[in-house]
Write a structure and sequence with these properties.
About 45% of the residues lie in helices and about 20% in strands. It has 2 domains: about 180 residues, 3-Layer(aba) Sandwich (Rossmann fold), CATH 3.40.50.2000; about 190 residues, Rossmann fold (3-Layer(aba) Sandwich), CATH 3.40.50.2000. The protein starts with a strand and ends in a 7-residue tail after the last helix. By secondary structure, it is an alpha/beta fold.
Amino acid sequence: MKKVKVLFLMPQMGMGGSERLVHNLVRRMDRSRFAPSLAWLYGAEALQEFQDLQVPLYYVPKTKRVDFSAMRKLANIIQTESIDVVSAQHFMPAIYAYYGCNLVAKKSLVFTAHSRWEIEDTPLKWRVAGGYLLRRIGASVGVSPDVSSAIQSVFRIKASHIFTIENGVEIDLFSGEGNVGGLRSSLGLGDGDVVIGIVANLKKVKNHLFLLQAFAKIAEEHDHVKLLVIGQGFPGEPDNTENDLRSYVNNHGFAERVSFLGFRADVAKLLRVVDVFCLTSLREGLPIGLIEAMATGLPVVGTNVEGIRDVIARNEDGILVELGDVMALKDALTRLISDPEWRHKLGRTGREKAVQKYSLPRCVREYEQLFLSLANASAPR
């Protein structure tokens, strides 16, 4: 059987939620039926994690606001490499792939949207133009029913042309099991420390400052609580908050209680040293980091915003707090810090949800079925 060649197109070379989805898909796709490859528009050097996938990698630099050269380079890759399906993550990459897929090589294009807000923030002129283009591609995908609904309403696309494929995680990888004593020691954590963790790149939308404000109050009352901040800021990006966050921690005198770990490839191991996971985003799509924490068996606290409240059932498998309510966040975290039994109950229920609803094999299978159908290939019986 001829393999279906799928080119995944990302905005940047990094490891945020959409990039982790691509990494997982490429890693787990059936290589007897698919030949995946990867392209991106910003950040010249490929992360080792993507190099380790041993698939063709293409850096297509986008250097202008509207870069026709990048469109032509993408079209050339699609044509010369005989790509069957392009899977574009986010709206802008989908627009850049449209020229190569629809006008040059006549191949299928799949647009995946990762949040309602990225759709609703689309300027009016691009809503009209984007709707015209997206109605002429192979399919649009929302990572949750809410995101799919936003695609339909904003771009005026028929529901039959939109697929909902919820993100998945490697459940077994995040089992929460294993000896982590050495890792705790290397992170400066004592045996009696209770650890709060967050996994999110250092951007304004992730709202780390809200967590730091609550942690400052917790630190005044509890000497044994530490905070791990896992994720990176991207220099030169206008929404990079890393310097501001580090300054806040230093200015408030609890730098020895907070560890900025930057990008880490060992998130699964790091989550095993965490006792409470917290995600304080202003808005989300379907947050993979939150699901990974639940798969690890951690109690989770999140802001009551789109995306997060789609995952957390209040007081059943996690806790929701309102944006800006520092005392409510402080109280929620303090209760979990002080009550191991409550932590265990929420963590156990959250893991059950992750296993039942957010498994990676299910996610991969649904994408494979979509790609096969668009490439006019038949799945083996």
